[in-house]
Design a protein that fits this description.
This protein is mainly β. It has 2 domains: 24-105, Beta Barrel (OB fold (Dihydrolipoamide Acetyltransferase, E2P)), CATH 2.40.50; 109-183, Copper binding periplasmic protein CusF (OB fold (Dihydrolipoamide Acetyltransferase, E2P), Beta Barrel). It is built from 2 helices and 13 strands.
Length: 184
Amino acid sequence: MPKAALRFLLIVTVTTALQALALERATEGVITRVDSAAKKIAVKTADGAEEVFKFTGKTAMHTAKGVKTGAVDTYLAGKEGTHVVVHYTGEGVEKTAVAVDDLGKDTVKVGEGTVTALDKAGRTVTVKTKSGTEETYHIAKDATVDSAHGVVKGTEYTAKEGEKVSVHYTEEAGKKVAHFIKRL
């Protein structure tokens, strides 16, 4: 193989690898521990796995009262059991939290199934569960969607009929409100 072609292939491979590392992902779970000294948080996901994320002074903490930067450890201290959505980059043991969304304690439920309808104007998604029932979820204005292409805002969510998803939701005023949707 000519040197120029080999260099080109190497550049493309390195560029693709760097883009993959920078891709923002998200996961939802329950805080199991906060280690301020090591600047790490551990989150137990719905499938029972525990994921560990580093945080920095640039990591944003989204709360009901607004956004705080650099306050992850102080805000989450003593809040084990709180449901969160962690936006992160990296893979394996090198995951770094970009933002953490506090969803509260004992409030989040998870539904899984196949998308049967999406109403962008009405901001709802309808999912057929394994039992055959259809559940309609109202997409929260600050909802997060983790797709094959990274994280998108709920307002930009475009689901295809037949797509398999898990919906992490709360119940508010008799409605199921989706805060995190993960394409399976």
